[in-house]
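User: I'll paste a sequence; please echo it back and then give the predicted structure.

Assistant: Echoing your sequence first, then the prediction.
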Amino acid sequence: MQSRKHWLSLAIRCLVGWLGIAMLAAPSQAQRFAYVTNSSSSSISVIDTATNAVTTTIGVGARPIGVAFTPDGSRVYVANSESNSVSVIDTATNTVITDIAVGSFPQGLAFTPDGSRAYVGSSFSNSVLVIDTATNTVIATIDIGRDSTAVAITPDGSRAYLTSTGTGAVSVINTANNTVIATIGMGGNPVGVAITPDGSRAYVANNSTASVSVIDTATNTVIATITQAQPNGVAITPDGSRAYVTNNPTPGGSVSVIDTATNTVITTVGVGLNAQLLAITPDGTHVYVACFSANSVFVIDTSTNTVSATISVGANPVGVAITPGIGPPTNKSQCKKDGWKLFTIPRKFRNQGDCVSFVNTGK
């Protein structure tokens, strides 16, 4: 009897301990951070998106510009334009674990959905470099013309779209063999590029022609042109309904909100001077905008399209990346109770039934 009581007491203590660990772990799993490149400080500001406070600053190479998370959120890759390198940050410790030598003046970068490769635009090398993330080595170099800038990859991972300010075009790369399969003329200085969650459209910011081009990815042709004031960066909401575009006319800085169903601007939000790149939270509720000359990140509430916070960061911020969303669900049990609320990929679910329907049909 005494032995049974001992084992029961031990089991209860173990259970309580396990529950305590689980309760402590749960918030960290849902916790999200925005990583911001400070180009003149050669650093990364890490912002807790729950509090909009800078929690740490990480030193990287010279003049960091582009920044992106691996799909599992375990690493952040940073393009250091003047160091000709990509820094790899372990997000568990917020330390740089390696630096990868790349081409001259790297800027934008993006990952394949499986996280196995990163594509990096190297402006002065007139190429895109492909990094194997298992070994953190460059495994391919793709010539695309002058001044490669930003990169976006389709949700199925089959294509990479890369802007080239020097050629005034977007190059389309087949990621299976790393060859250019199409070149789409933009008319002048394409900078930012983003692809809708369903992969059907690419939105391209053309800075010098004050426009946003919409590309049909099935035909790789421009199907719409939207007038903007010196657009720079583009980001699309997780549900694909809106595109947010930074504008940096002199003087001023703003973000235009485009209805992707009609390709019309529905409102414009004033932000800090020289708005650069931007990122949207996985639940689609907030947009984080790096404003170069304001040394700040402006946060837009997408329900009202108003600025809800301004966060001081390092000198001359350019790029922003936010911890990826959770999902998609792979079995119905994950949808039970409030489990459906956790998923943000491929979208936020309306209720448990919507989550189960996705598991059953993939839609």
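The chain has two domains: 32-322, 328-363. The CA atoms of residues 69 and 171 lie 23 Å apart.
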